[in-house]
Amino acid sequence: MKTLLLLVVMCTSSLHAQMEGLWEGYDGEWTHVSRQLVALAEATPADKFAWRPAPGVRSTSEVYMHIALANFYLLSVTGPAMPADIKSQEMEKTVTSKADVIAFLKRSLDAVKTARAQLKPGSFSGRSRLKAKR
Predict the structure, then answer these.
(1) Which of 66, 71, 128, 130 could bridge across to 108 with cysteines, CB 3.0–4.6 Å?
(2) Distances in Å between the alpha carbon of 41 and those of 36, 44, 49, 109?
(3) pTM of this prediction?
């Protein structure tokens, strides 16, 4: 009986450690990718934010804004509300200045990091429903 109890305790703590390890990897990767993305945006000359590789393809600023808006949207379907100053997906085309684009990008990355920090190990143990956009 003692052996069985010891086995159960060891397996449970091992599973908990694996879940914590998963998040540690995510946090490190998120931080790394976020820094690279912001550094790339900051290194891009302001006049290149309007550049697009071909007609009908997103411009540089539209790509960065697409990432920022997608971050906010994905958060909004999982819990946190969409920021009040985000009026529509058209902001991808209307927010074009380097300073404004980088500010939105940083805000979106920080919002994801903050939402992740609020999660606890048992956050995913139940079922959840995604909000349908109609």
Answers:
(1) 71
(2) 9, 5, 9, 13
(3) 0.74
